[in-house]
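Key idea: predict the complex, not the pieces.
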Amino acid sequence: MPELPEVERVRQSIEAVVAGATVERATLHRRDVLVIPGDPEGGFSRNRTRYRPKRASPAHLLQGLTLRGAHRRGKQLALVSSKGPAVIVHLGMTGQVRRVAEGARLPQTDHIHATWRLTAADGSRWRLVFRDPRRFGGLWHVPDSASLTERWSALGPDALTLTPTALAEVCRGAKRAVKAVLLDQRAVAGVGNIYADEACFAAGIDPHRTATTLTPHEIESLAAEVRRILADAIERGGSTLRDYVDAEGTQGGAQLVHRVYARAGLPCTQCGGVLSTDRLAQRATVWCPRCQG
DNA sequence: AGGCGATCCTGAGGGC
DNA sequence: TGCCCTCAGGATCGCC
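Result:
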């Protein structure tokens, strides 16, 4: 499940090829994966039972344009053209962006929903594909840079640079669990279930605590741990639990240092006590009742 | 306001 | 070997 670190690794692993590249040809293999402005379903997620996509053209996937680069906010990735139009890529649960040299074979060819054929700035030719077996992810066409800014302004501050002030602001008056706040992309962008649990553990805060009751000291500690854990996970190449690989197919190693995620019933690495589990905000949650007061 | 359940989807893993 | 069930979860929607 790609969260901020995994999306950032994907971004890094395509940036060099994407910056200055020309999109020679773009193909959409599955129509309902792309949302274009004016679609009956205008939100960020598609309700598939009702979603009826309008006709998409290769231009909606930036065919014929030169790319400026790959940008990221929270868990969202955007291929941005130098003229302004962009495509937001959301990986959802099982989404991948893979990149191979033109003519090279992709390791997996099932569930590929979009393909871009690129000529990089140095003249080399590449194929970029969006693959997403479970289709919780998707693509969003954005007509200009102002629209991208507008869309991304609906997201909270990027979790990688989360300040105590910003965290305090979204916790103020929030009568819900602090983990629910961390998972809310409008409050903080980029944290998912794994790193929410890991950050709460590292900060010694029970994820069930009502957000508004956190002390300034706890807020500061939590913001620092969110930043540290995400930065460390990026350095380790992200967390590979099952599906995640970066654009070159490289697995991550951050899962090796998880202290609580998927460790329910196992001993706490800090105190040796048994880790507890329940469901919070619809997500499996693991914490140490002794270390997280 | 926000908790909660349902929904979308596929693949893995357990039980028998 | 195979079938059925459950579970995983990001985001949203509708109900309470």
